[in-house]
Design goal:
With 214 residues, the chain is an all-alpha fold. The chain has helices spanning 2-6, 10-25, 31-47, 50-53, 59-71, 76-97, 101-116, 126-141, 153-176, 181-193, 199-213. The protein is 75% helix and 0% strand.
């Protein structure tokens, strides 16, 4: 930390560390190594939140998507670590401005993107993710420090989890039509239309459809 504060290129150095960490999170690792990696990630976000929450950075989106993947892991220890990391990411964002709109949007878009990637080559276990979402909800309900304000943090987490469950319900439908490209595409279009009030999400699904055509 002392070295970082003394260098003129501290932001570039920290960004490089974060990129290496994200790469490690997205490759196959042992459970023990992942535990250390999640601890490092939480420490980095806690000490240098601007790395993720500055408007110009795309690191927040990449981290949210990676954490969601691990939240659907078949290994309970990995799921619990990823759930803790995702919850603390939300909390950190909330503490900066009394809402966590940035992380909320990135988590929702990341899940939509993951769902759209489901194919015979890429499996995604929604039941494991539902367990992780329940863990995150429990963290929020027990977080007395942030529960007293108007439109409190636990309430915002509850809203987010509800939206994520809706997307996971779409996942089940998507899986039914994996072998029927036309029905699969039709369902993606109907899901996109369902996000009329959320332009970012609608765009994500339309981009997913475009990628399927490539």
């Amino acid at each position: 930390e002392q070295v970082v504060s003394c260098t003129e290129h501290s932001q570039a150095l920290l960004a490089s560390v974060l990129r290496v960490m994200l790469h490690a999170l997205n490759t196959t690792q042992s459970t023990q190594f992942l535990q250390h990696l999640f601890a490092l990630q939480r420490s980095l976000v806690s000490k240098y939140p601007n790395l993720l929450f500055d408007e110009a950075t795309e690191h927040c989106a990449a981290l949210c998507k990676s954490l969601l993947k691990h939240c659907s892991s078949s290994i309970s220890g990995v799921r619990s670590q990823a759930s803790a990391s995702l919850y603390l990411l939300m909390r950190q964002n909330y503490e900066i401005g009394n809402n966590f709109a940035r992380v909320k949007m990135q988590v929702t878009m990341s899940l939509s993107s993951l769902v759209a990637e489901i194919s015979n080559n890429f499996k995604f276990n929604e039941e494991h993710l539902r367990k992780s979402l329940k863990t995150i909800l429990t963290y929020a309900e027990q977080d007395n420090e942030l529960s007293d304000s108007f439109n409190s943090f636990p309430e915002q987490v509850q809203d987010l989890v509800f939206n994520l469950h809706m997307i996971l319900s779409d996942t089940v439908k998507m899986k039914e039509y994996l072998d029927d490209p036309e029905m699969h595409m039709d369902l993606m279009y109907r899901i996109a239309k369902g996000y009329q009030t959320s332009p970012d999400l609608r765009l994500t699904w339309l981009e997913n459809m475009a990628n399927k055509h490539k």
